[in-house]
Design goal:
Layout (H helix, E strand, L loop, with lengths): L12 H13 L5 E2 H8 L3 H13 L3 E3 L5 E4 L1 H12 L4 H15 L2 E8 L2 E8 L14 E3 L4 H8 L3 H10 L13 H14 L2 E4 L6 E7 L10 E7 L12 H18 L3
Antiparallel strand pairs: 1-3, 2-3, 4-5, 4-9, 5-6, 7-8, 8-9
Helix pairs in contact: 2-3, 5-9, 6-8
């Protein structure tokens, strides 16, 4: 049976634009004008005019071929601000603080933004030797534990597009800059359910991360523990996994409440 067209809900032109934006934001790849015509059932001239309005405002953008659309810089910035300033902040902070107290190391809540990982929140260890990375800090996706997990749960086409367009810059002697080696690390992360950054972004820093289960399906929130290698060796980081998974489930329950689940 042919798929029913998506209905653009709204009593005003502004709300219908927002509804179209929701359709575009659900895609994990660029979508064409014709694709949106088929998905929404709206006339091509009407959709073209709506897309032009969103593009001129920086809310969506065209791909290099000038025929496909995706979320724009302004929309991604809005999404980042919503994550950083969520009304769930106090509850999330309590879970991070409890995790930090349990493991004795710094803990981060992260999200994917373009080709980078952004720190949504962080609970800093009181230990004298620590790495200072405040909320809002960004790290490259290819050399962070959370980044590997986000890549692992993308569709192959989305992951390939991101990796091919993000430079695999070498930050330390352990940074993975070979595409084949990175793909193997990503595949391992998907199988294991966790990923490790073994001094790949900062010398002397070990990180282990898991994804926070999402009520909407694909997760865009990671939970990580960071420690200096002088205290935690790479093969010892796995000891944090039970505490990480417990905290990730607690965060997932908070997210489910915000979704009304």
């Amino acid at each position: 049976m042919p798929k029913e067209p998506a209905q653009l809900q709204g009593d005003t032109p502004t709300l219908r634009l927002f509804s179209l934006l929701e359709v575009i934001a659900q895609k994990d790849e660029f979508i064409s004008l014709q694709g949106l015509v088929e998905e929404t059932g709206l006339p091509k001239p009407t959709l073209h005019r709506m897309l032009q309005q969103l593009e001129s405002a920086g809310i969506i953008q065209k791909d290099g071929d000038e025929k496909h659309y995706s979320s724009g810089v302004r929309l991604r910035k809005l999404a980042e601000n919503l994550l950083l300033n969520s009304t769930m902040h106090s509850a999330r902070r309590a879970i991070l603080e409890n995790l930090k107290a349990e493991v004795g190391e710094s803990c981060n809540l992260t999200a994917l933004s373009g080709g980078e990982i952004i720190y949504i929140d962080r609970a800093e260890t009181e230990a004298p030797l620590r790495f200072h990375l405040h909320p809002g800090s960004r790290v490259p996706v290819h050399c962070s534990a959370s980044g590997k997990l986000f890549l692992a749960h993308m569709s192959k086409s989305q992951r390939r597009r991101l990796i091919e367009n993000v430079p695999l810059t070498q930050y330390t002697i352990k940074t993975i800059t070979d595409h084949g080696e990175l793909e193997k690390d990503i595949d391992d992360a998907k199988i294991q359910g966790y990923a490790i950054d073994n001094e790949e972004f900062l010398p002397g820093l070990i990180c282990i991360a898991v994804l926070v289960p999402s009520p909407s399906g694909q997760s865009n929130m990671g939970l990580a523990i960071q420690a200096p290698v002088i205290r935690v060796k790479p093969d010892e980081a796995i000891k944090f996994l039970p505490a990480l998974l417990k905290a990730a489930k607690a965060l997932s329950r908070i997210e489910a409440e915000s979704w009304g689940s």
